[in-house]
């Protein structure tokens, strides 16, 4: 899709458009059309949605803060994409079909208009992946850094949400895609890691900047009701599996050797075995991590056979014991993690 270009003046700021000029020019066109369930969209005090009687509304929100989630020199187009994609990942984990979103921005008045244009272009392209409509939001001036918040809404069948809280002892633990690419990409960007191959560097950076929301997988799992518990991997595989364990009152064991890695990640680990812990604690993989009863594993294989995404069995759910825990083993021996996963405080 083409982007909206207002000016070629590199020093022009968003102050030249003003708040409502910015909204009307860059973000109002992202509402889309032809949605019978959207009764009132942008331009009023609130949006109004008609929820079909057989479905439930699913709501998620994610905030991205300059200096925490992205650097001041981050590519605004990729940042716009990622803003949408991380919310889509939450929809996928719940098994919901994404439909609408709200976007709120806090921007310094000195923000370049070209930055806002590229950010809006990234949002537009990511929303188009699943025909999501931007139905409102808010803008405000910031005295410091840029802050971005998106709230996304989707629909799913009555009482069909895929929750963290339904894992059972004996369940098998599966994860989609590959793990650790984003953490390696970020470490590379921060100068904490040297990757020899140019192709590997490019691949890992792309995985960090453009996570792939597993919406088709989430919808297929929800439609079949084959899984017991599900979460998207944002804080790190080990930490997010522990979230499932704590919510379900169970524990888990995973085999580090079975965690799926990309060729680029495998090359990095072969060069430095110390990276193994980072792979499952670094976070921002945005893959789906889920549990399946042993008797349903064959059905899972049939359901996912036609999807263009791999799934890998990496462990099992155990009785809780004294407290919920995640055991990581390598070659059958306990493996100690350097940290448990991402946390803000």
What's this entry about, in short?
The model has no long low-confidence stretch (mean pLDDT 93). It is globular, with a radius of gyration of 21 Å.
Task: Please explain how this structure is put together.
This protein has 345 residues and is of the alpha+beta class. The protein folds into two domains: 16-157, 60s Ribosomal Protein L30, Chain: A; 172-334, Phosphoribosyl-aminoimidazole Synthetase, Chain A, domain 2. It contains ten helices and 13 strands. The strands form three sheets. It has a seven-stranded mixed β-sheet with strand order 8-10-7-11-9-12-13. It is globular and about 65 Å long.
Any key phrases for this structure?
alpha+beta, 60s Ribosomal Protein L30, Chain: A, 7-stranded mixed beta sheet, 4-stranded mixed beta sheet, globular, ATP-binding, ATP binding, EC 2.7.4.16
- Helix and strand string, N-terminal first? HEEEHEHEEEHHHEHEHHEHEEE
Question: Can you identify the CATH superfamily of the largest domain?
Answer: PurM-like C-terminal domain
What structural class do the secondary elements suggest? alpha+beta
Examine the coordinates and then state which fold CATH places here, giving the name of the CATH topology of the largest domain: Phosphoribosyl-aminoimidazole Synthetase, Chain A, domain 2
The helicity comes to 25-40%
Give me the Rg, rounded: 21 Å
């Amino acid at each position: 899709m083409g982007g909206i270009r207002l000016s070629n003046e590199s020093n022009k700021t968003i102050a030249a458009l003003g708040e409502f000029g910015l909204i009307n020019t860059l973000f109002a066109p992202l509402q889309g059309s032809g949605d019978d369930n959207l009764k009132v969209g942008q331009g009023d005090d609130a949006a109004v949605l008609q929820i079909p009687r057989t479905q439930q509304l699913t709501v998620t929100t994610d905030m991205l803060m300059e200096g925490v989630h992205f650097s001041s020199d981050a590519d605004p187009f990729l940042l716009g994409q990622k803003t949408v994609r991380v919310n889509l990942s939450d929809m996928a984990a719940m098994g919901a079909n994404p439909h609408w979103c709200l976007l709120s921005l806090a921007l310094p008045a000195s923000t370049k208009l070209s930055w806002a244009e590229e950010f809006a272009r990234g949002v537009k392209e990511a929303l188009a992946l699943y025909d999501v409509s931007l139905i409102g939001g808010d803008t405000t001036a910031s005295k410091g850094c840029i802050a971005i918040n998106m709230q996304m809404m989707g629909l799913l069948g009555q009482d069909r949400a895929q929750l963290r809280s339904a894992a059972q002892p004996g369940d098998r633990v599966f994860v989609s895609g590959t793990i650790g690419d984003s953490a390696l990409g970020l470490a590379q960007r921060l100068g904490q890691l040297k990757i020899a191959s140019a192709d590997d560097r490019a691949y890992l950076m792309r995985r960090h900047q453009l996570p792939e929301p597993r919406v088709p997988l989430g919808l297929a799992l929800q439609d079949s009701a084959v899984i017991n518990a599900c979460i998207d991997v944002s804080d790190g595989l080990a930490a997010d599996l522990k979230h499932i364990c704590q919510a379900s009152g169970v524990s888990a064991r995973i085999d580090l050797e079975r965690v799926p890695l990309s060729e680029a990640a495998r090359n990095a680990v072969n060069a430095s075995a110390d990276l193994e812990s980072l792979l499952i604690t670094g976070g921002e993989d945005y893959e789906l991590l889920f549990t399946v009863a042993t008797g349903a594993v064959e059905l899972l294989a049939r359901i996912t056979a036609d999807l263009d995404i791999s799934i890998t069995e990496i462990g099992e759910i155990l009785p809780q014991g004294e407290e919920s825990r995640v055991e990581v083993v390598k070659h059958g021996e306990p493996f100690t993690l350097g940290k448990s996963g991402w946390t803000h405080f």
